[in-house]
Structures are given as C-alpha cells and as structure tokens.
C-alpha cells in the first residue's frame, strides 16, 4: 500500500458495487489516506438496488465523488445477472464457474477505472475482488490482478512516463468473516450495503442466493450481528 | 494466426472504428477464414461519422454481425477526441503523447471484445493497432497487445479451461503504405472509410489533422490512388 502523506492526499479510484466487499475496500482506501473517487458500472444488472446502495456507501464513507457509467453488457448476454432467461442459482455453489459470472466484468470495470485514473492523474485503483469465497470467478484471482496491473503500466501515459500504477486488492486473501471484521473495525455500516443477486426494489435480500448465503455465513463466522433483512 | 478450417469457420471479434486500419484488419480476418463479429464503441467521439463508416465497412466486407456499444467516455474528459474544449491539433505530430489520445481506449475496447468473445465462445480478437505511424499512443505497442493477451487468458472461462485466447494485431509492424497495399490486395474499398478526427457530417475529411496527413501520405507512399475527398 502506497500511503499518501496527510498534507497532500493522493487520489484513488475505488470500484464500488454497493455490496459488502467494495464498501470495505473503500473504507480501507480512506483509512490509508486516499481521496476516493468511486466508480460504479450500470451494466444492465438485475439487482439495480446495488447502484443505489453504492451511492449511499460512497456518501457514508466520505468519497470525494461517485460516478455511475452506463454500459449495456446485457446486449452481449451470457450471465444470470444480466440475462433474464437464465435463473439465478439458489442451490449453493457448484463446481466450476457459476452462471452468475458476468463475462469480463472485472476487466471492463478496471479498464474504466484506468481511464478515469489517467484523467485524474491518480495512480491507485482499489478493487474489492476476493479469491477465497468466490474462487469460481477467473477474474477474482491474484494472478488476474497482477496481470491487470502489468497491463495498466503498459497502457497508460502514467506508466510510460514512469509513474507506476498500482491495483490494490486488499481483500483478495481474506475470508468473508475477516472482511466483515476489518470493515466493522473501520466503521462500515453494512446495513446500507446490498449483496443479494435478486434483491427486491427496496433492497430486501432474498436470503437464498449464493451471495446471501456467503454473506449470512460470513457474519455468523465473524461473530458480528448481521444487519441484513432477509426475505427467507 | 490460427486459421480455422474451411468447413467449420471459427468466430472472431473484430474491433472496427470505421477507419482505414480496422477495415484492413477485418479484411485480413475474413481472408484467414474467420466468421467476423464486429464491435464498435460509441464513446462520445466528435467524429461520429466514423460509426456510420464502420457499419458500411462491416457490410461491405461480409461481417456476420456489427454491434455498437454506447459508453460515455466523455464523462471522464481528457482528450481532444471527446472533449470539445480541447482543440484537435493540426500542426503535425509533436514529441510525446498527442492530446488526441483517449484514456485507456484500447484497453476498454479490448475488454468489451473479450466479453463478447466469451459469450460467442470465440477465442480470437482482431484489433487494428499500429505501432509505426502512431507510436505516441502507449496502447498501440506490441508489449501492450501481449500484456492484454496474457490478461485475457487469466480473466476468462476459456482461458481457465485451457482454450487459449489470441489477440491478433496484424497491422502492428506495418507502415501506413503497407497497410494500404495489403488492404487493396484484399479488395478493401477505402472510399467508404473515414480516418479524419474532425470529418464533417457527410464524412468529408478536413485534410489537415494528423490522421488525414498520415492517410494522405500513406496512399502517396503506397502508390495507390487516394479515394478520400479532403476539404483542404
């Protein structure tokens, strides 16, 4: 972590989904002293209440700015999170890559963060990917993050000019319980976050999808009271 | 180049801007026997006639499909191609990175191509980047393309499952004249392409911007008649 000095805060781009992980990631970036510019992607996801949650989280955790970029990934289809003809699975994680995987989502989000970073002359991007509880997603692994950092340093003016870009993935090796404990210690109010893949329009979680299950188990394992209202 | 067999054409994603380079790139992909799915980005560029040109080129060169994805990069600002407060330079290439550089554009476009490739189960992406005449852009260099290919193989289901993704950049080492000669041999009608950074609404080229200058010089050096109507 390249912590900036207190007198001249450095800017960081923080990818924010409205879920538990990215909220914790923002709290960590703020705690490290960064001025945080949060970016959310409106990619035609089913769980649009996530975007409202992202706005609440950005404000609650003192982000400098929050931008939502619209991009219609649903046009490509292929995921239960964007394609209404594919059911969201509720039976627990299978082997292999789950159907909730959105093609190239983290690659796209990091690319957009990179564009904004160049404009803001930020050299730090935070992303809340996690390889422990989501190991089925290829773009949540440490080798993916390292490859993107390498790319970022070849793709950009900053990189070419020798101002090294860093992709921070502070949650990558943490269990859900460890993430929740760390965020709680930093004052994150998880009651305003939404993890559910199929939350209703008020943000109420279904309680049965993979994401709800991981979240519920995480609070239990962390010994932290779960503020989520589950339907089931 | 992994040429597919004639009996079962493989699918390729081809990034298409409507300019001379990407039209040539599509012709090369078709000539190699790929079924081509063309992707253009509507990123709030000034030269929107490019997108119409992309549609004409896709049809003329027998693409299977052409999709335009909207993404408002202008929201981030920072380039003369998207920001109307920055003048398009006309005095020839400076040293260093030109102001017409769009932050992370090729990274973003390749990421979107990757998403569509995953959905179509395509393992081949074609991009018309060129390191000779555009050496000021960091994301047009061979090391950038290689880094993206590496990332693509870590980021995707196909890569994880051992189906190697290839990023084809067949123009990367060619001069503009060589590109024009190759495209002409493959039957590309350059009269329907638009390269100009500030073409008018009929697609007429200004004749003075860097892109027009490179194009004009390229036809001259190739000994091929330039079909472009320049205003100046």
Descriptive notes:
Two copies of one chain form a homodimer. Chain A is an alpha/beta fold and 232 residues long. The first copy, chain A, has one domain (11-222): Rossmann fold. Chain A contains seven helices and five strands; from the N terminus they run E-H-E-H-E-H-E-H-H-E-H-H. In chain A, strand 1 (11-15), helix 1 and strand 2 (35-42) form a beta-alpha-beta unit. The termini of chain A are far apart. Residues 91-95 of chain A have low confidence and may be disordered. Chain A binds chain B through residues 67, 69-73, 75-78, 97, 101-108, 110-112, 114-116, 118-119, 138-139, 141, 143-144, 147-148, 150-152, 154-157, 159-160, and chain B through 67, 69-73, 75-78, 97, 101-108, 110-112, 114-116, 118-119, 138-139, 141, 143-144, 147-148, 150-152, 154-157, 159-160.
Structure keywords:
11% strand; alpha/beta; 5 strands; 232 residues; five-stranded parallel beta sheet; Rossmann fold; homodimer
Assigned CATH class of chain A: Alpha Beta
Instruction: Provide the helix percentage of chain A.
Output: 25-40%
Question: Which strand-content bin applies to the residues of chain A?
Answer: 5-15%
CATH topology of chain A: Rossmann fold
Instruction: List unreliable stretches of 5+ residues of chain A.
Output: 91-95
Estimated structural class of chain A:
alpha/beta
**Name given to the CATH architecture of chain A:** 3-Layer(aba) Sandwich
In short:
Two copies of one chain form a homodimer. Chain A is of the alpha/beta class and 232 residues long. Chain A has helices at 20-31, 49-60, 105-120, 142-155, 157-160, 176-185, 210-222; strands at 11-15, 35-42, 65-70, 124-126, 166-168.
